[in-house]
Structures are given as structure tokens and as C-alpha cells.
Amino acid sequence: MEVEHRFSEYKFCPRCGNHLGVRVLKRGDPERLVCESCGFIFYLGPKLVAGAIFELDGGILLVQRDIEPGYGKWTFPGGFVERGEKAEAAAEREVLEETGLEIEVKEIVGLYTYEGQIPAIAVFAARAVRGEPVPLDETMDVRSFPRDGLPWNQMAFPSTEQALKDYLRKA
């Protein structure tokens, strides 16, 4: 990824408001944003996304996205982990917010990262505890698909397909 593009959206220090410059702090490390005035180092780390795969009514529950990226495509429920929140709790919260279902997270299915992509995606296997599936926040449809009838050609993200394949392989 081109350095100039990676840093182009950040111009000012979040601590003192002065200009950020790009510098190598330690030989072998990538360039970092550093405040030219106070020396604050602005580390650009990944954002963590948590999602859950679980079965309901004889199939794997997927949501159809009502937002970009992936508008109109299918994925498992999930979203960004808030600062200080456990990934498992975030997966449970996101499922409730998107489908109206309460779940209990079990084990991790996998952690998915991709070159040039900001989010790291933690996907958990879960079980439905209570509720009725209904499309809510950021979701246009909620549906259970049979294991042999998943909409593979309509998946929202590479991580969706990869995590579902891992889940099916482990189950």
C-alpha cells in the first residue's frame, strides 16, 4: 500500500492540533505519523470486527446487508468491537442489534485478515438462546440457509466465505 495514500486522511495531531509528519522511528519499521510539534506518535492499527455463525431452524443464519460495503449481499451478523469491549460480547451485541436474536458465543471459528484491509475479523461459533429473527439495524433480511444451499455467489466479503467454509469443516 502506498504510504502517501495510507496517511492522506490524517493531517493534524489529535493531542495538540499541529501538523503530522511521516517518519521512520526505528530502522526496519514502517513509516509512522508523528506530530511535528509535540512528538505524539499516531499509530494506525487495525480495527477489530466480531461476528457469529450459528444455526437456527435447521440452517445457518445470514443477514442481507442494508449498508455499504456489501449492500444487498449476505454475511453472518457482526460489526466493530468497541474500545474496552470483549470480542465475544461484541459478537453477541451485534447479533442482537442486527437480528433481534440473543446468542451465546462458543468457540472461535477463525481470525481473518487481508493485505491492505483495515479490519481484522474474529468469527465465533454460537448458539441461539432466544428471540425471533427480524431484520433490524443495517439489515434488510435475515434468513436461515440449509448447509448445502448457502448463497456462495452472493457473499458480502471474502471473510464471509472463508469463515463459513471453516465453520462447516469443523462442524
Structure description:
The protein contains three helices and eleven strands, in the order αββββββββαβββα. With 171 residues, the protein is of the alpha+beta class. The chain has two domains: 40 residues, Ubiquitin Ligase Nedd4, Chain: W; 124 residues, Alpha-Beta Complex (Nucleoside Triphosphate Pyrophosphohydrolase). Strands 8-4-10-9 form a four-stranded mixed β-sheet.
As laid out across the biggest beta sheet, the strand order is 8-4-10-9
- Classify the beta-strand content into a percent band: 35-45%
Give me the CATH fold name of the largest domain.
Answer: Nucleoside Triphosphate Pyrophosphohydrolase
What's the CATH architecture name of the largest domain? Alpha-Beta Complex
Q: What radius of gyration results from the CA coordinates?
A: 19 Å
Would you kindly provide a brief summary of this structure?
This protein has 171 residues and is of the alpha+beta class. Helices cover 18% and strands 36% of the residues. The chain folds into two domains: 3-42, Ubiquitin Ligase Nedd4, Chain: W (Single Sheet), CATH 2.20.70; 47-170, Nucleoside Triphosphate Pyrophosphohydrolase (Alpha-Beta Complex).
